[in-house]
Please model this.
Amino acid sequence: MIKINLLPRDLKREEGAKHQTQFAILGVIALICLLLIVYVSKMLAWSKKEKELKAANAELEKMSVLVQAVEQKQLQKEMLDRKWGIIDKLLQGRFRWAMIMDEMNICIPKSIWLTGMVSTKMDNGNLISLNGMAFDNFAIADFVTTLDDDPYFDNVELIAISDAGGGGGKDSKPTLNFSITMTSKL
Model:
């Protein structure tokens, strides 16, 4: 079938313009709805992110308190470890000096007595300086030889022998002062 339009052309144009206006209004409304949907979704996403940020900040505050507590405990642990190390070192040193004095007691002859002892810590042991008195050179020589033969002492050196005086009375014997240095393996 064939359509014949008997309406005047001006009416036809008005009707076309009316349709175009309707399509333009519908397009603007669709665009506004689309923009509104995008805006609402962005606002919801922003609100969600803001809540997550507040929760993360609250968690961060809780964690910072815990981190401070852990750091405090770590400092206390380090301090206790240092104290324990000092105590352990002192205990080891206590027994070491008891052993040194015991070995010294074994080596010393009856006619010698010690008047002083100084120790200096070194990498390979202790440097020990002894001062003492004896009645004769033979006792000093025996003492030096005995120390040199002892497995706990090294580098035994007789530094000096000097006359201490005495011998003025009829029962008194002359005495000698001596100095010895050595290193201890203990």
Remarks:
- The beta strands are 112-122, 125-134, 153-166, 174-184.
- The mean pLDDT is 87.
